[in-house]
Write a structure and sequence with these properties.
Shape: globular
Strand order of the largest sheet: 2-5-4-3-1-6
Number of domains: 1
Structural class: alpha+beta
CATH architecture: Roll
CATH class: Alpha Beta
Largest sheet: 6 strands, mixed
Helix content: 10-25%
Order of helices and strands: EHEHEEEHEH
Length: 160
DNA sequence: GCCAACGTTGGC
DNA sequence: GCCAACGTTGGC
């Protein structure tokens, strides 16, 4: 299993929107970048991802999702009324794909981009790099674990 | 609203 | 195949 980071602008689709979906599940449509698409095509059911709010105040990681369906054609690409319409993608030859994700957990508080950049173990995360624009990025197991300790700072003194 | 960084497009 | 122009992303 692998770890990922999914970006979304909360004005478009927030973690609270996901929470309200049936089964708290959504198809991650609208990705129109080849590198991000290729990452999605490698995802397996059971892979986990951070839900990241971009263009937010503050930007940061707000929760965890789980891949529940592997990549399948993004039908919004052939919907002329969709903002993500792409005339070069057809049902016969789909160009864009999406995975389905289910909400696992919404964090009590946002792990802000600022906190990520401040953290010696996290500042190398792709999302923290200057000029990063990829909406789907891989996360290493070490980064994953470190973010989880930030979500629950007391986990390292769980005896009390 | 600004603008740096990046990906894509299209003329040549 | 090069690269300038353009559109988009996303932090600030």
């Amino acid at each position: 299993m692998h770890f990922w980071l999914f970006k979304s602008e909360p004005k478009t689709f927030s973690i609270d929107n996901l929470k309200k979906q049936p089964q708290q599940t959504t198809c991650w449509d609208g990705v129109r970048n080849y590198q991000a698409r290729n990452f999605m095509r490698t995802m397996q059911v059971g892979d986990r991802g951070f839900f990241y709010h971009s263009n937010a105040n503050p930007p940061g990681i707000v929760g965890i999702v789980e891949v529940v369906k592997t990549a399948h054609p993004d039908f919004t690409a052939w919907d002329m009324h969709s903002p993500h319409y792409d005339a070069d993608s057809t049902p016969e030859h789909p160009r864009w794909f999406m995975v389905d994700v289910r909400l696992v957990e919404k964090f009590d508080r946002c792990i802000t981009l600022d906190a990520i950049k401040q953290h010696s173990q996290l500042r190398s995360m792709q999302v923290a790099r200057k000029g990063n624009r990829l909406s789907i990025t891989p996360v290493t197991p070490a980064e994953w674990q470190t973010v989880l300790t930030l979500d629950n700072p007391r986990s390292d003194r769980s005896s009390r």
